């Protein structure tokens, strides 16, 4: 009895402390994201980027006081859907965002938009929702999944490589990655290897690469798998022998930090980088560095951009009561994206530039991504034509 | 030929890593009758503690005792507070409780180190690769792992077969109740065994840090393969864990390395890659099924 009352008291205290100055009428934005497990840092950065945009406007977006309601989907599609239903039905939330992974988005987004709510994706951009499955209430701030890897293929082609070796985990996103790379690369693929999802040892693959002796290696291994892959690539003596071209998820700031010097010399591709020279980005990077003691990732930039986009729309509508007006306002994309030029394509996915980055050793020896040049200008995605809206 | 030799070494390296984890797990399961899902968490704790000390002090070698001690301490603590209450309960309760431990440890690591994977330093000596025989270049760090794994195997052999503690361990895994009836302090024995298992898991965790990623949930990735090793080797048998660990490591590596190439010989490359990838990821489980078909209690089951 005593224990339970102590728990009850501390729970009440915790809630009281967590929600100090919330105005009763703050507009709620529903955030469904992945915070647990090895991929938890992705969701954490998206959430914190979005929160940063709100904090920088003093608790408001576009002059409207807002409050984030955040729940962890645990990378389970079923959870994502449940959380969305709770947000919409119990809390009357009409504006949702936050999903990191395409499998969660695939199960959750159709439910949200069919319910008349608006969903803005800060990360996942699966192909089925970009083409025939596009919807007027569904916006993507980040990118369409394939475009990430199409940029890498374009980079390999531009650098003059003709023979590539491609590796990715044996699951949908892995297959899409290699397909996207091949679409823009156009050269010969000497080997296409599908590794196991969650694989930790890549020595067998290293030997295969060495035996095939390609001009360039493309690999897509998100999170810890990619860190292991890069370190083992270096330890096998392949780094510096066979160049590697990577898509954006393989070289985020957290991965670079964990990999260390094993990443130096790699060619990366991205739609955003810390060193972008525009006012919006400078303000964002400065605010992040002041508030957080951890590397700034492109996930954070996408969360922040989502915040700016919502702010631009709310500034026009003043609220979410008129969904049609809100949709029109979002479609204008009248905000200063930290990546520079930004507009929505026909399927409400971004049309923006992709860049080539070089991974070089920084002053402290740790790898840093430096922006080299524009790779693909005003690039949309391969599915926009299939979208009828 | 050289490619095959290189893959054999890779398989051996993966195998000794599995052995380090499986040795502890099989003793805990065999002697104490506890299914410890949180064994992967001890592996993770060893990796985080060791890496943290190594990065702070700048010395890779100081990380080893740190990882070992941290994992063993947490092991003792877990045994005393949670596992001890589970000996008499059925396996379902044990699975539930140790699964809860996984969640708790993962969350604690997030609170202390954050969600980001951390960087693991490697001493200069281990950079690049060395030529073992003409034409065969191999990363020296992997050789170190193989050496450490084999040393531990030899050490365990002497501990189990030549010491009094080892005798009790052997007796315990053969017939637990008889050992208790003979007046041996089983509780102390259990604590020692659990601590030893945790120690080995911590060692495995720290040693793999520089090859893999030190991050939350790293233990769960390898836990499944470890349980397969325990089952194939026979519950409670260190010898079984060693043979099955190495065997599994080699089979897994060989399948991944050569199956797609072999299949390409008589089918379309895209089919060969797809089928090769699927079959090689099933490989260790197929092996387990075959072994269990022939020897239902595993290769070297203790207690007959």
TrEMBL record, chain A:
Alphabetical list of Pfam families matching this protein: Peripla_BP_6 (PF13458)
Signal sequence residues: 1-23
Domain of life the protein comes from: Bacteria
Key words, A-Z: Amino-acid transport, Signal, Transport
Domain Leucine-binding protein: 27-360
CDD domains for this protein: PBP1_Nba-like
Biological processes per GO annotation: amino acid transport
InterPro entries: BCAA_transport, Leu-bd, Peripla_BP_I
Family as reported in the entry's similarity comment: Belongs to the leucine-binding protein family.
Protein name (database record): Branched-chain amino acid transport system substrate-binding protein
Automatic annotation (TrEMBL), chain B:
Membrane-spanning residues: 12-38, 58-83, 95-114, 141-160, 188-207, 222-251, 272-294
GO cellular component term, pick one: plasma membrane
GO biological process: amino acid transport
GO molecular function terms listed in the Swiss-Prot or TrEMBL record: transmembrane transporter activity
Keyword Transport annotated: yes
Major localization class: membrane
InterPro entries xref list: ABC_transp_permease, BCAA_transport_permease
Pfam assignment, any one: BPD_transp_2
Membrane topology of this protein: Multi-pass membrane protein
Protein origin, superkingdom: Bacteria
Subcellular location: Cell membrane
Keyword Transport recorded: yes
Keywords: Amino-acid transport, Cell membrane, Membrane, Transmembrane, Transmembrane helix, Transport
Similarity section: Belongs to the binding-protein-dependent transport system permease family. LivHM subfamily.
Name of the featured protein: Branched-chain amino acid transport system permease protein
Species the sequence originates in: Lutimaribacter saemankumensis
């Amino acid at each position: 009895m005593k224990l339970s009352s102590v728990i009850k008291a501390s729970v009440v205290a915790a809630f009281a402390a967590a929600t100090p100055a919330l105005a009763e009428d703050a507009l709620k934005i529903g955030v469904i994201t992945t915070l647990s497990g090895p991929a938890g840092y992705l969701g954490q950065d998206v959430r914190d980027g979005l929160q940063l945009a709100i904090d920088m406007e003093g608790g408001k977006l576009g002059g409207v006081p807002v409050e984030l309601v955040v729940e962890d989907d645990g990378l389970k599609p079923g959870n994502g859907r449940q959380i969305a239903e709770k947000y919409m039905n119990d809390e009357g939330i009409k504006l949702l965002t936050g999903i990191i992974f395409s499998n969660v988005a695939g199960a959750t987004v159709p439910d949200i938009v069919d319910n008349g709510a608006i969903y803005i994706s800060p990360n996942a951009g699966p192909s089925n929702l970009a083409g025939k499955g596009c919807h007027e209430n569904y916006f993507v701030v980040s990118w369409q999944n394939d475009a990430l890897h199409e940029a890498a293929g374009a980079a390999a082609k531009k650098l003059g490589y003709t023979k590539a070796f491609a590796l990715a985990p044996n699951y949908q996103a892995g297959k899409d990655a290699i397909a996207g790379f091949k679409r823009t690369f156009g050269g010969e693929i000497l080997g296409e290897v599908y590794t196991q999802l969650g694989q930790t040892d890549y020595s067998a693959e290293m030997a295969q690469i060495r035996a095939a002796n390609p001009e360039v290696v493309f690999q897509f291994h998100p999170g810890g798998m990619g860190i292991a892959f890069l370190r083992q690539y270096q330890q096998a003596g392949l780094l510096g022998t066979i160049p590697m071209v990577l898509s954006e998820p393989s070289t985020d700031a957290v991965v670079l930090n964990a990999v260390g010097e094993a990443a130096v010399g790699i060619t990366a591709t991205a739609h955003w980088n810390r060193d972008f020279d525009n006012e919006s980005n400078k303000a964002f990077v400065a605010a992040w560095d002041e508030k957080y003691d951890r590397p700034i990732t492109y996930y954070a930039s996408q969360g922040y951009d989502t915040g700016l986009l919502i702010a631009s729309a709310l500034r026009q509508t003043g609220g979410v009561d008129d969904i049609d007006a809100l949709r029109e306002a979002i479609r204008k994309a009248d905000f200063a994206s930290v990546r520079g030029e930004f507009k929505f394509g026909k399927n409400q996915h971004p049309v923006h530039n992709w860049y080539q980055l070089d991974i070089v050793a920084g002053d402290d020896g740790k790898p840093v991504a430096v922006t080299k040049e524009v790779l693909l200008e005003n690039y949309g995605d391969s599915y926009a034509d299939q979208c009828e809206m | 030929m050289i490619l095959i030799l290189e893959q054999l070494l890779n398989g051996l390296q993966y195998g000794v890593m599995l052995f380090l984890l499986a040795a502890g797990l099989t003793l805990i399961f065999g002697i104490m009758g506890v299914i410890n899902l949180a064994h992967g968490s001890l592996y993770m704790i060893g990796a985080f503690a060791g890496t943290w000390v190594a990065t702070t002090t700048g010395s890779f070698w100081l990380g080893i005792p740190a990882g070992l001690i941290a994992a063993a301490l947490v092991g003792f603590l877990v045994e005393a507070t949670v596992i001890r209450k589970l000996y008499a309960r059925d396996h379902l309760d044990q699975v539930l409780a140790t699964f809860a431990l996984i969640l708790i440890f993962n969350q604690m690591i997030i609170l202390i180190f954050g969600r980001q994977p951390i960087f693991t330093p490697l001493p200069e000596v281990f950079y690049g690769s060395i030529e073992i025989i003409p034409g065969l270049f191999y990363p020296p760090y992997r050789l170190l792992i193989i050496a450490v794994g084999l040393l531990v195997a030899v050490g365990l052999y002497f501990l189990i077969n030549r010491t009094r503690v080892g005798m009790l361990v052997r007796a315990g895994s053969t017939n637990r109740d008889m050992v208790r009836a003979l007046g041996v302090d089983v509780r102390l024995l259990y604590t020692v065994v659990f601590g030893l298992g945790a120690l080995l898991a911590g060692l495995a965790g720290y040693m793999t840090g520089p090859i893999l990623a030190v991050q939350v949930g790293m233990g769960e990735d390898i836990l499944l393969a470890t349980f397969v090793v325990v089952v194939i080797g026979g519950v409670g048998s260190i010898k079984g864990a060693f043979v099955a660990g190495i065997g599994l490591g080699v089979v897994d590596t060989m399948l991944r390395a050569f199956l797609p190439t072999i299949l390409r010989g008589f089918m379309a490359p895209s089919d060969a890659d797809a089928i090769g990838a699927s079959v090689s990821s099933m490989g260790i489980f197929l092996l387990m099924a075959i072994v269990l078909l022939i020897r239902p209690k595993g290769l070297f089951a203790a207690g007959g």
